[in-house]
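Re: weekly structure request thread

Next one in the queue (347 aa):
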Amino acid sequence: MARGARRYGEEDQEHYDRPRRRTRPRTKERPSYDDAVDGTVMRVDRGRLRVRLADRSADDPTVTAMKARPLGRKAVVVGDRVRLVGDVSGDDGTLARIVEVGERTTTLRRTADDDDPVERIVVANADQLVVVAALADPEPRARLIDRALVAAYDAGMDPLLCLTKADLASPDELVATYRSLGVPWVVSRRGEDPAAVRDALAGRVSVLVGPSGVGKSTLVNALVPGADRETGGVNAVTGRGRHTSTQALMLPLPAADGAAPDEGRDGWIVDTPGIRSFGLAHVSPDDLLRSFPDLDEAAADCSRGCDHSAEAPECGLDLAVAEGRVEPERVDSLRRLLAARVRDAGD
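Done, posted below.
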């Protein structure tokens, strides 16, 4: 065939262009969603989200929803404040769409390991991280507690130590470890009303984290009657608990007098699955240091690139201790948290 000659003649069907798929013309205008309603994500389970609407009472059913396509790869997590369109009746078989996710005030994050670049958002818009640790059966894991505290400081959340099974061991030794950091603490005993814990959670949005077997789900069941969180024991060989909760769940906290929760007026708690590691690849030493204004100010005298460890030459923290500007116990505690970032992710 000569160069430039047509492969098909005008009489051949292939000569004509194939019909194109009809599409709507593109537009830069985005829907306003004026009819969207506000809600809070209470649970995420395999692509389906359970949302409590802002104008509904605690007794009303939650709405099942899915993420709208325009949100792309943006994660929607428990605690997110969202806007929904579609069927928001909450009836069986109905499905609404989440079209907007509000700006987050806090974001609790973790990675699988310290060298894992992929961050996992645990919960959004919480203001208190409750680190639940058993005083015995299983034994407390101090380095895992340290890591959870680092995540709390990084997220801008207030930390709280909740020490369970105080009927088996004294909390004094473990509490002394964190006294210099000013971390508040509460204790609970099996079979007793967790009044002190309830008081510490009142009016807050609190996330409960801790390894399996420490009594986290048992505590939630005591705080929220009817929560029916599955509980499990501790493996006699490994000394670690068995996973029972598989998904994070946000629950309204009832009042101390047993009255029904009123739109979370008395607080919210988020029960999370048991953790065996708490990767902190997303937290830098400077990020952690900013959570301690007095030590951050002292670190201004550090040489460039100082990692603020005990081995660091000419660290401003050592100078501040020598001059009596900061307490040595507080510096030691900070350095323990800094060391927890880069070792023993699974403890």
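The CA atoms of residues 7 and 339 lie 72 Å apart. The longest strand covers residues 37-45.
Next request, please.
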